[in-house]
Amino acid sequence: MRPKKYTVRLTELEKKRLAAITKKRDSPDRQIVRAKILLLLNEEPDRKGKPKPVLEQRKIADRCHCEIALIYRVSKQYAEEGIERVLNRKKRKVPPSMRVRTGKVEARICELYQTKPPPGYDRWSLRLLADVAQEKKIVHYISAPTVAAILKKWGYKPNRKKTV
After folding, report:
1. Cα–Cα distance between 151 and 142 in angstroms, integer?
2. 142 to 114, 123, 149, 161: CA distances (angstroms)
3. For 86, phi and psi rounded to 5 degrees?
């Protein structure tokens, strides 16, 4: 068992909020489990001012149906970053990048594949298709494996000798 390094002391408002989360059916499972863990880890002083004994991490893990490591991570996160960070996921700093493979791009690459290859080439190769698609500004960047996936999806066989 890991040594107890981080203590959890919840305020009345936090306890009410966590209790509401555990009772709600529409809360995400991740949030419910973490709320239960925090409630079980709470070190509340009794009437004499002594802290009540908290369950062992193994028993809390059994009650919440999770790993012991999660108990440790939740207590550490609560001590270092607060309750909001424990309950909610971290927001992305960088937004997701735009998709390269849209329907228009796929259609234009297939049209390009059906045309004659540039002078000096016998047939279209995947790398050549990718390069010409970038030159014609169909896409900003596309790799040969992506071109292969597009052609395969549309039923073309680039490994065959004749393309047109």
Report:
1. 13
2. 18, 19, 11, 23
3. -70, -45
Mark residue 126 as left, alpha or beta (left: phi above 0; alpha: psi -120 to 50; beta: remaining). alpha
Q: Rounded to 10 degrees, what is the CA torsion of 76, 81, 87, 89?
A: -110
Question: Alpha carbon of 141 to those of 9, 126, 150, 152: distances in Å?
Answer: 52, 13, 14, 19
pLDDT digits (tens, 9 = 90+) for 33-61: 999 999 999 887 766 767 676 788 899 99
Are the C-beta atoms of 74 and 44 separated by less than 8 Å? no
Q: How far apart are CA 151 and CA 122, in angstroms?
A: 18
Report if pTM > 0.85: no
CA distance 88 to 30: 9
Helical pair 144-153 and 126-135, crossing angle rounded to 10 deg: 100
Rounded Cα distance, 30 and 47, in Å: 33
Residue ranges of the chain with per-residue pLDDT less than 50: 163-164
